[in-house]
Amino acid sequence: MPTSIQYSIDNADRIRFINEAWLQFACQNAGGHLNRAFIIGKSLWGFIEGENLRQTYGLIFKAVRTTHQAAILRFRCDSSLCRRYFQLTVSPLQEDELMLSIHSIREISRDPVLLLDPDVQRGDQVLTICSWCVKAWLPNDEWVELEEAVNRLDLLGSGVVPRLRHGLCQDCQVDIEKELKNLR
Predict the structure, then answer these.
(1) CA angle, corner 48, sides to 28 and 138, nearest 5?
(2) Which of 125, 148, 124 is closest to 136 using CA atoms?
(3) pLDDT recorded at residue 72
(4) Residue ranges of the domains in the chain?
(5) pLDDT per position as a tens digit, 132-166
(6) pLDDT score, position 98
(7) pTM (2 decimals)?
(8) Which helix (H) or strand (E) holds 184?
(9) How far apart are CA 166 and CA 13, in angstroms?
């Protein structure tokens, strides 16, 4: 992905702009229905799942708006065929608007992970994954790599793929808060 994915939000966190790379990435990741007419003017919060993740983005936005400094954070956004590592830069603009730029750092191919296939039919079981590092939460309050969770929980043994719920693991929460403290 040579071009950074970019979008901007106004001071009320409504999406004002998305670039072509944003649209291409959406189409490549089961978001073909997401076009400018559907996105522009909508609240960003309607597209972010999970209260922890919403709170974290809220902290990031507040820190950037308060300090007028860009926040630079790394995260993963895996597909079923590869691990994808990205860098997110949240930059201040005029009047408390923000520009979010996402740049691909690297991709590592892997055997297909059915759990991450957006086109697979899902059952009623739910698996929580960290939206930042893609680790999965186990019932013993442990976060592990997705492949390990699939094996340990025998998630595909029944032939029914669980739904995914996005959250934020404690390690990622701490790392993000540490990065935001550096802005002050």
Answers:
(1) 90
(2) 148
(3) 96
(4) 5-181
(5) 999 999 988 899 998 898 888 887 777 788 999 99
(6) 98
(7) 0.89
(8) none
(9) 20
User: 176 is written with which tokens?
Assistant: 């993000």
Angle separating helix axes 170-181 and 51-67, nearest 10 degrees: 10
Query: What's the pLDDT band for 1 if we cut at 50, 70, 90?
Result: very low
DSSP string, 93-120: -GGG-EEEEEEEEEEEE-S--GGG-TTS
Range list of H helices, the chain: 20-28, 36-39, 51-67, 146-152, 170-181
Count of helix runs (H) and strand runs (E) in the chain: 5, 9
In contact, 89 and 71? CB cutoff 8 Å: yes
Q: Which CATH code fits 5-181?
A: 3.30.450.20
Sign of CA dihedral 154, 159, 163, 166: positive
Between CA 47 and CA 50 the distance in angstroms is: 10
Q: How far apart (Å, rounded) are the C-alpha atoms in residues 180 and 81?
A: 32
